[in-house]
Amino acid sequence: MNQSEALQKIQRLGVPAFETRDISALLRVSPANASALLSRLAARGFVRRLTRGRWFAGTQQNREQLAEQVGAPSPTYVSLQSALFRHGLIEQVPEVLYAVTLGRARRVRTPLGTVSLHRMPPELYGGYETSDGGTRIATAEKALFDLLYLSPTRSRLFASLPEMELPRSFRWAEVSRWTNKIAGKSRRAFVKRKVASLRAACAV
User: What average pLDDT does range 57-80 have in this prediction?
Assistant: First the structure.
């Protein structure tokens, strides 16, 4: 099978990302042959390697889908500064795509940009909506909660909150609902103080 025929079959899958083994099954070739074929398609710019064994055939326009693809097989959704920007709460475009996952925290560089994955305990995973493009994106309230929850971590990556403009429709009760789910007393108290401080600042 030539590259053109293979590409047509891959495109008919209708998914932005896939694994080498998926293409091996689709084309009925060995994993080694599928990997070699995908590497040749990547050299021509038709697909891009995300991580070992995972490939991306989407465009820059659906870059947000990278989070779930890089986080796979662990459940993942776009959150933190990336979701806050998406909802219009901050003005600065994040250079990195931030996401929350049930898998391990890590930073992954891909041809379409860097994805920063941050682990959340299962009881605090959720609070996202699915976009028209099929991407899981945190609500404005959950994105802020995730940011506050992760702010005291050792990396100090979220220690300084970005300048935000919270609309009148912002649901503080939703932030409080997630805060009350935090198992650790000290972390729960920390987030509650942060929430109270933010609410007071917004009320001025």
Answer: 81
Tell me if the bond preceding 73 is cis, omega within 30° of 0.
yes
Pick among 3.30.160, 3.30.70, 2.60.40, 1.10.10: CATH of 3-56: 1.10.10
3-state class of 27 per DSSP? helix
| CA–CA distance, 100 with 80 (Å, rounded to integer) | 8
- Nearest of 50, 145, 22 to residue 106 by alpha carbon: 50
pTM of the model: 0.72
More confidently predicted of 99 and 95? 99
Q: What is the DSSP string of 66-104?
A: HHHHHHTTS-EEE-HHHHHHHTTS--SPPSSEEEEESS-
Q: What would the DSSP string read from start to end of 103-159? A: S--EEEEETTEEEEEEE--GGG---EEE-TTS-EEE-HHHHHHHHHHHTTSTT-TTS
Residue 61: what pLDDT? 47
Q: What residues does each domain of the chain span? A: 3-56, 60-203
Q: Say what the pLDDT of residue 62 is.
A: 63
56: which strand partners?
Answer: 17, 48
